[in-house]
Amino acid sequence: MSIKIENLTYVYNPGSPFETKALDNVNVEIEAGEFIGLIGHTGSGKSTLTQHLNGLIKPTSGKIIINDTDITNQSVKLRDIRKKVGLVFQYPEHQLFEETIYKDIAFGPLNLGLSESEVEERVKDAMEFVKLPFDELKDRSPFELSGGQRRRVAIAGVFAMRPEVLILDEPTAGLDPRTRDELLEEIKSLHSRYKNTVILVSHSMEDIAKLVDRIIVMHKGKVALLGQPREVFKEVETLESIGLGVPQISYLIRDLKQKGIELREDIFTVEEAKAEILKWIRGNKNA
How many domains does the chain have? Predict the structure, then answer.
């Protein structure tokens, strides 16, 4: 599904002493099937923006058009939109409520009106994606699991809806490095399999660099930067001025260049750095 955001503005507590403009005339277009990274300092407007995309928040002004449907229009049934736009909040395990893992993951598909067999197929598929053994865990309470496993159950519940747009707000927050990497790989696999539109909100420049097609940088409710990772991460001074940065490997490459080692500047993943450094070493051996 494509998304077009036009002149989107949102004001919290309008007309009161606590009035705050959370979004200020935001204009963005996202193509169907894109993997988008959304970054910004705390309070930049990231979460407010994502909550507009399935109608949880109504804009003060502006439009959100999803597949040619203006979801801000009064006549639009948001229930239908939310079937297609899945939103995984930060710490989604806090939203678990059913007595078994199966029932929790099946809740969304059941509300789509699917048959029992289709629901079971989706629950199995979703659990497989997040590396939870179906036969072993389906009848257990989600509250018996570890924190990382509960996170997987919550995310599987959204996966099972098979949304055409999947929004993930800091999905790896609080997880250990191994669980974080596994979960990100699962999200990447899901995108590759279904070619859905994914929006990943993250504070990790490394995660964003590895996964996304384009990056939206938010600052004080506005879009500060927009482009491919290679384009955005070139803007080191701009990113640092708004409290962000670039992947740590990019700083390493910059330090090596300052020591006289000739390397490309537009490197932002460990894999690229490894290849470039090996290329430099081999070139100097042959010199």
Answer: 2
Tally: H helices and E strands in the chain: 12, 10
Please indicate, yes or no, whether residues 238 and 265 belong to a single structural domain of this protein.
no
Phi-psi region of 227 (alpha: psi -120 to 50; beta: other; left: phi over 0): left
Chain position carrying tokens 């999947």: 166
227 and 266 in a single domain? The answer is no
Residues 112 and 242 in one domain: yes
Residue in the block written with tokens 């939310």:
82
Alpha helices in the chain (DSSP H): 46-52, 78-84, 101-111, 116-129, 134-137, 147-159, 177-194, 205-211, 229-232, 236-241, 248-258, 270-285
Q: Residue 164 sits in a domain of what CATH number?
A: 3.40.50.300
* Nearest by Cα to 156 from 133, 181, 136: 133
pLDDT, tens digit, 9 for 90 and up, residues 47-87: 999 999 989 999 999 999 999 899 998 888 888 888 899 99
Amino acid of residue 65: I
Distances (CA, A) of 60 to 10, 46, 80, 218, 228: 5, 16, 22, 18, 30
Q: Which residues of 242-270 are buried (b: 16+ CB within 10 A; e: fewer)?
A: bebebbebbeebeebeeeeeebeeebbee
On whether both 240 and 251 belong to a single domain, the answer is no
* Cβ pair 94, 150 in contact under 8 A: no
- Structural domain harbouring 257: 247-287
Report the SS3 class of residue 170. coil
Give the model confidence (pLDDT) of 138-193 as tens digits.
999 999 998 889 999 999 999 999 999 999 999 888 888 888 888 888 889 889 98
Q: Within this chain, do residues 70 and 172 fall inside the same structural domain, yes or no?
A: yes
